[in-house]
Give the backbone structure.
Amino acid sequence: AVRSELFDYELPDASIARSGVEPRDSARLLVVDADGQQVEHRIVRDLAALLRPGDLVVLNDTRVMPARVRMRRAGGGAAEVLLLDDSDDGWWEALGRPSAKLRPGSTLEVGDDFAFEFGLDLGEGRRLVRPLRGGAAVGRVELLALLDRFGEMPLPPYLGVTTLDDPSRYQTVFAQ
């Protein structure tokens, strides 16, 4: 079993980057030799000079989806879902808040005939949710367009902000 306490450590507030460095190629780069014995602190701009024939470069091309969607419950209270994993059957595993008030079978409107149907409670705040448009399940391509319009970036709480001035700065330059 994984013991999560092994990953607990103190992270000084001053060590948290609240925004990306500009220009991007001046970002810090940690270089470790193949044996793990030598460590250098460089910048991304140095990468081309560090590479040799046969070296492997792995790029993160993951695009962070604006997968947090806020809405209002019928009684006026706030609710939100954070989409986590597509089940390939129209349903998504998501974090829902307030989970206890998002009853299975209920539907909450987001806007422009976009809504979420709430399904099975998976425990620990996790829910099955189904994005809907006009009462029908939304496909992945349509959902991505709706999230670009109605969603927010799922920012970690340690950043100390809830929205970004420029969401593109939260993406890697290789994002697809």
In short: The longest strand covers residues 114-123. The CA atoms of residues 12 and 114 lie 41 Å apart.
